[in-house]
Design brief:
The complex is a heterodimer. Chain A contains 23 helices and 16 strands. Chain A is an alpha+beta fold. Chain A folds into four domains: 38 residues, no CATH class; 152 residues, no CATH class; 226 residues, Sandwich (Immunoglobulin-like), CATH 2.60.40; 180 residues, von Willebrand factor, type A domain (Rossmann fold, 3-Layer(aba) Sandwich), CATH 3.40.50. A six-stranded mixed sheet of chain A has the order 7-6-5-8-9-10, sandwiched between helices. Chain A has a five-stranded antiparallel sheet with strand order 1-12-14-4-3. In chain A, strands 2, 11, 13, 15 and 16 form a five-stranded antiparallel sheet that branches. In chain A, helix 14 links the parallel strand 5 and strand 6. Chain B has a domain of 92 residues: Rna Polymerase Sigma Factor, Chain: A, CATH 1.10.1740.10. In chain B, helix 9 packs across helix 10. The radius of gyration of chain B is 17 Å and the shape is globular. The two termini of chain B are 21 Å apart. The chains are: A alpha+beta, B mainly alpha. The interface between A and B is large, with 65 and 80 residues. Chain A: InterPro entries: CLCR, Uncharacterised_YfbK_N, VWF_A, vWFA_dom_sf, YfbK_C. Chain A: This is Ca-activated chloride channel family protein. Chain B: One of its GO terms (biological process) is DNA-templated transcription initiation. Chain B: GO terms for molecular function: DNA binding; sigma factor activity.
Chain lengths: 697, 189
């Protein structure tokens, strides 16, 4: 390598360094002699506590902060740490991969384990001081082992070899050496006397020797998601009734899209299929008046990923009020301005997003702004939305800084909302954050209760998530659900436009609340069924008629889609074995004929507490023999469902990316907003990141 | 081309100078100030030269050299002779360089200087021109370990083994750092 004639570094050897100046040399010599004299006199007096005189002492103190990276002389400190870390990190990884700990929580656990270990080692160390005579020949020297003066202590080549910067194989070798030699262990234990420093340096050094940890397919993103298991297949004979709450959120799709576009697979828990499906606007037939706020559209068609089963597609479209009905809005922006918001895709995007929203508002709307970070404060008292310049100026002034420790942030926001409350209008707090929900109420439950109480008082809450890495999706969803609002993830300006402008009406104006869906399957026609998505929205059967049980809300013009995969009786695709002794014959009060299922939906009008019921039978007339016969919208939704299942690594369904793409293409329709074209692009991204298994062509 | 140099490692030679150094060290460790003064006298040029190469300017080099002398004065009694005295001095010098650069955040400045050579960077002295060429600037922007490896092996013309001794790592690690450095600077040189 060094014989390479083109070696660029060779020129370094031909450099002439100017000779040292005599004055400088003399000065340095004098200073050195003084230090030497000071050290010597101290030594001769055997006063070790202030070994080298005050000047020497100070110089050493100054390198303490850089000790962790000062490896040339101090690598003996991390030797033991390297050993411990090699033990602890795989253990931590094992713990990580074999328990249900959430990704976000795990690093902390590993860290704690790592810091605890050195402490244990420290205790051992005190019992084996004799094991390190080479390093600390005298009592007086012992201090030097721990303290910065270690810089000046010699190191054996063997110890040097264990420098943590060494590549993994060497570290492993060293590890083995140490395990074999009790003295080596003793040394390492003694050297671990400064656990704090050790832990720090370990954090710095250890990631490199563990490449196996880096190469995991789904690296935890730092964002937190509620864990859930996929909806399982159910036998109609066992559980003929399926109940769930509708969900109009779309946060999952934006998040998944962003992950895929950045070239990484989203965590399975981040993929909520119903949110993927509901992200897209569908042109279902809507109701004509506000008396019945929504109307279902139903179709049964063959499953694209399983020729023997069918999909029961339930589409709901919310009533769209005529343009003349302008309901007044009272909005309070509660904005996180903590230091972490200081990124282009957070606060600056948030400002532009709210600018868009303000543009949509009219003279009978009011806007106020509250910020939280360090301290909560009112930036803008409730103001008529026509004062756009002043509102935008207030938004513009916001800047990120400080930690998120805003006391009373949310209380303040609600106070303003109540102060400017509009009876008969929409009163809503819109919380915009990158994940720090430390808004003054510490326990999440207390916060949820607070939001619930305020919701019952007429003020709702929507949550807009920004950025990535810190996003606490679980809390975001929980707060928005308790606040009867929406949770949206704003990944870019386009998304802001979709959520706040195109869907501005539905995001703001609720037309029905606590919407629950219950489907009863006819065991004579359907043997098994499975609801796709809605895992986090499942309700108990008895909850359906209980008006006290909260459920999802639907806004003006919202579309909601739910898809069941059903196995017709006698199709041969049954996965559940029939019972040997058979089930009790169902007692049908009426002649059900050849109905496939019976759909019931409950909802409450915005100002009512008693639910209304919509009922509809799924009759054979709704069954289509060919997927080409159904509407583009339904085909597209089926493609999105297939995409979500494949992306999650679902237990059900087996379809290639190319087939999903073809199906999505066929259902693309007019696609005025371009969302569907974008989705088709996304299928390509996903196909690259998670290639089809070789069996699928 | 470095094969002949290989024999002259800083750690191995049993020659006159080394024997003299060992004697001086032993005397200094026994409290002989004159011997220590002689050691400084002998090694100041090495320290200064190293500091200069690592920093690229006189004032920093002199500051560091003085700092190292002070450190030697305090620490020589702890020197146990397991590596060559010169290796030990190198080590202390490199640490002093690192401390200073970290303390002052000089590296950022060098990186910036490397990014665009502005008129004020035109060296005042002839010698400075030699150490502020593009190559030197590039090497000084390397990560510390890579920089140390490259400079010890190429600028100080030490063997990989001697550099490893100074840096407190294995010989292979030094070679690896140099390899990495070459990779880092590929396209820049």
């Amino acid at each position: 390598m060094s014989d390479d004639m083109n070696d660029p570094f060779k020129a370094l050897g031909q450099t002439n360094v100017p000779d040292a100046r005599a004055e400088a040399k003399a000065r340095a010599r004098t200073a050195g002699m003084a230090a030497f004299a000071a050290a010597n006199s101290e030594q001769s007096k055997k006063i070790q506590s202030s070994a080298q005189g005050s000047q020497w002492r100070r110089r050493l103190m100054s390198i303490v902060p850089s000790l962790k990276g000062n490896w040339i002389m101090d690598m003996r400190l991390p030797i033991g740490t390297a050993a411990i870390a090699l033990l602890v990190l795989p253990l931590g990884y094992q713990l990580y991969s074999s328990t249900s700990m959430t990704p976000a929580a795990t690093p902390t656990a590993v860290e704690q384990a790592a810091t605890r270990e050195p402490k244990a080692a420290t205790e051992t160390a005190t019992t084996v001081p004799a094991a390190a005579p080479q390093i600390a020949p005298t009592d007086e020297r012992k201090e030097a082992v721990v303290a910065p003066p270690a810089v000046t202590l010699p190191i054996t080549p063997q110890q040097q070899a264990a420098a943590p910067a060494a590549p993994a194989p060497m570290a492993d070798q060293e590890m083995a050496d140490m395990a074999q030699s009790p003295q080596g262990l003793g040394n390492s234990a003694v050297l671990m006397r400064a656990p704090g420093l050790v832990a720090e340096s370990e954090a710095l050094y250890m990631p490199a020797p563990m490449p196996s940890m880096v190469a995991r397919p789904n690296e935890p993103s730092g964002d937190q998601f509620t864990r859930f298991d996929e909806q399982r297949l159910k036998a109609v004979a066992d559980e003929p009734v399926s109940t769930f709450s509708i969900d109009v959120d779309t946060a999952s799709y934006s998040y998944v899209r962003r992950q895929l576009e950045d070239g990484s697979l989203p965590e399975p828990d981040a993929v909520r299929i119903e949110e993927l499906i509901n992200y897209f606007p569908y042109d279902y037939a809507g109701p004509t008046s506000g008396d019945v706020p929504f109307q279902p559209s139903i179709a049964v068609y063959p499953t694209p990923w399983n020729p023997k089963t069918q999909l029961l597609h339930i589409g709901i479209k919310g009533y769209v009020p005529a343009a003349g009905e302008d309901k007044p809005n009272n909005l309070v922006f509660l904005i996180d301005t903590s230091g972490s918001m200081d990124e282009p895709d957070k606060l600056p995007l948030l400002k532009r997003a709210f600018g868009l929203l303000v543009d949509q508002l009219s003279g009978n709307d009011t806007v106020s702004i509250v910020v939280y970070a360090g301290s909560a404060g009112v930036v803008l008292e409730p103001m008529v939305a026509t004062e756009k310049a002043r509102i935008l100026a207030a938004l513009d002034q916001l800047s990120a800084g400080g930690s998120t420790a805003g006391a009373e942030g949310i209380a303040l926001a609600y106070k303003l909302a109540e102060q400017a409350k509009i009876v008969g209008g929409t009163n809503r707090v819109i919380l915009a954050t990158d994940g720090d929900f430390n808004v003054g109420i510490d326990e999440p439950e207390a916060l949820e209760d607070f939001i619930k109480a305020k919701r019952d008082g007429g003020v709702t809450l929507s949550v807009l998530g920004f950025g990535r890495g810190n996003l606490d999706d679980a809390t975001m969803q929980a707060l928005a659900q308790n606040g009867n609002g929406n949770a949206s993830y704003i990944s870019n300006f386009r998304e802001a436009q979709k959520v706040l402008v195109e869907e501005g009406g539905s995001t703001l104006e609720m037309i029905a609340k606590d919407v629950k869906v219950q489907v009863e399957f006819n065991p004579a026609m359907v043997s098994e069924y499975r609801l796709i998505g809605y895992e986090t929205r499942a309700l108990n059967r008895e909850d359906f008629n209980n008006d006290k049980v909260d459920a999802g809300d639907i806004g003006a013009g919202h579309t909601v889609t739910a898809i069941y995969e059903i196995t017709p009786v006698g199709s041969g695709a049954e996965l559940v074995e029939p019972l040997r002794y058979g089930a009790a014959a169902p007692v049908a009060a009426t002649d059900v004929g050849d109905e496939i299922a019976f759909l019931k939906m409950r909802y409450k009008l915005p100002d009512e507490d008693v639910s209304q019921l919509i009922e509809l039978a799924v009759t054979p007339e709704l069954v289509h023999g060919d997927i080409a016969d159904i509407s583009d919208d339904m085909r597209f939704a089926a493609a999105v469902a297939a995409f979500g299942q494949k992306l999650k690594g679902s237990d059900y369904g087996d379809i290639s990316w190319a087939d999903i793409r073809a199906l999505a293409q066929s259902g693309r329709g007019a696609d005025e907003s371009g969302y569907r074209a974008e989705f088709i692009q996304l299928i390509g991204d996903a196909a690259i990141l998670k290639p089809d298994s070789p069996i699928q062509k | 081309m470095y094969a002949p140099v290989m024999g002259l490692t800083a750690a191995a030679p049993i020659d006159h100078a080394a024997a003299l150094t060992r004697a001086l060290v032993a005397r200094a460790q026994n409290g002989d100030a004159e011997a220590f003064g002689e050691l400084i006298e002998d090694h100041y040029d090495l320290i200064h030269r190293t500091a200069w190469k690592w920093c690229g300017n006189r004032s920093d080099a002199e500051d560091i050299a003085q700092d190292v002398c002070v450190k030697l004065g305090g620490a020589i009694s702890g020197f146990d002779g397991r590596s060559a005295f010169s290796s030990w001095v190198y080590r202390i010098t490199l640490n002093a360089v690192r401390d200073m650069q970290r303390a002052r955040g000089r590296r950022a400045k060098y990186a910036e200087a490397y990014a665009h050579v502005s008129p004020e960077d035109v060296p005042a002295e002839q010698e400075e021109a030699a150490t502020s060429s593009q190559l030197w600037a590039a090497v000084r922007t390397l990560p510390e370990k890579q920089r140390d490896s490259v400079l010890l092996v190429y600028a100080e013309e030490l063997s990989h083994a001697a550099a490893a001794d100074i840096m407190g790592c294995k010989e292979a690690t030094v070679s690896w750092h140099i390899f990495e450095a070459r990779k880092t600077l590929r396209g820049l040189l």
